[in-house]
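User: Hi! I have a protein structure encoded as tokens and I'd like to know what sequence might fold into it. I'm fairly new to this, so please keep things simple.
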């Protein structure tokens, strides 16, 4: 909303200059407002691009090829071509190509940190050991790593139907609540807009009562409205959050959204159900 308010103020400045070309201050102010919005958008785009570039690394978690046994012969196929019911072989160092149920294994261990956050390799077995799918030892999950041993398993789910795919669908499908700073800025913009419009209407009535010329009245009203627009606030907030995110990046903290910097500063308690996730 705030960039829109600044753009609206810039448009009003240009209109004021078009009505009264003698007053070049309105032209200069309009250019400044547009430049501020443009530079702020560049800052935000750069930060989002940096985060997106870092997140591209996570795509490497998806395995490219898998060893599948079809018609009694082992062959390499693209992981996207696997279907439920395929029998695959996984060795230490491989990425698990789909959600698997293990039917044979020898000293087989997997790293499920991409799914559960547990950094220690977990041993796998043929028998079911728990009713919870994430805890039982006869299942291996898509995007996890085989750290040692060998295994032969049956594909039970692929693609979006895998456990990690379901989690991704829930995360991307849920609408994130507005951050505290977004709520505060929205509230501030509503107040500023209301005050600016109210003052503009008030001075419009006064100008008409004094029978000023329509041109002078329009310029005067536009000037009153633009005067209530805090031109530097957007740039100040963006630069402050960007500098903070840079300091956090130096400490290996990936900031995907600038607004989350302020949200993290408002956090008093962090709850975690996994030991080792937050400790070094």
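Assistant: Happy to help. Inverse folding works backwards from shape to sequence: for each of the 280 positions I chose a residue that suits the local structure. Here it is:
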């Amino acid at each position: 909303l705030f960039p829109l308010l600044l753009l609206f103020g810039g448009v009003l400045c240009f209109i004021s200059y078009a009505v009264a070309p003698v007053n070049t201050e309105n032209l200069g102010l309009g250019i400044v407002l547009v430049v501020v919005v443009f530079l702020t958008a560049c800052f935000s785009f750069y930060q989002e691009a940096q985060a997106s570039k870092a997140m591209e690394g996570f795509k490497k978690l998806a395995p490219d090829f898998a060893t599948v046994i079809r018609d009694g012969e082992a062959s390499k196929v693209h992981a996207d071509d696997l279907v439920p019911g395929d029998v695959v072989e996984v060795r230490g160092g491989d990425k698990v190509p789909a959600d698997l149920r293990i039917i044979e294994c020898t000293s087989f261990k997997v790293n499920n940190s991409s799914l559960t956050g547990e950094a220690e390799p977990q041993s796998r077995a043929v028998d079911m050991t728990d009713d919870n799918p994430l805890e039982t030892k006869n299942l291996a999950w898509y995007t996890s790593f085989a750290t040692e041993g060998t295994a032969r398993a049956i594909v039970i789910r692929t693609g979006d139907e895998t456990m990690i795919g379901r989690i991704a669908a829930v995360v991307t499908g849920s609408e994130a609540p507005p951050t505290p700073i977004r709520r505060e800025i929205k509230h501030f913009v509503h107040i500023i807009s209301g005050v600016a419009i109210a003052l503009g209407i008030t001075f419009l009535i006064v100008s008409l009562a004094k029978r000023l010329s329509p041109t002078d009245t329009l310029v005067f009203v536009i000037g009153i409205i633009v005067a209530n627009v805090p031109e530097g606030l957007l740039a100040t907030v963006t630069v402050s959050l960007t500098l903070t995110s840079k300091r956090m990046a130096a400490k290996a903290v990936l900031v995907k959204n600038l607004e989350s910097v302020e949200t993290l500063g408002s956090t008093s308690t962090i709850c975690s159900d996994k030991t080792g996730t937050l400790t070094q």
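A useful reference point when you look it over: The longest strand covers residues 99-111. Feel free to ask if any position seems puzzling.
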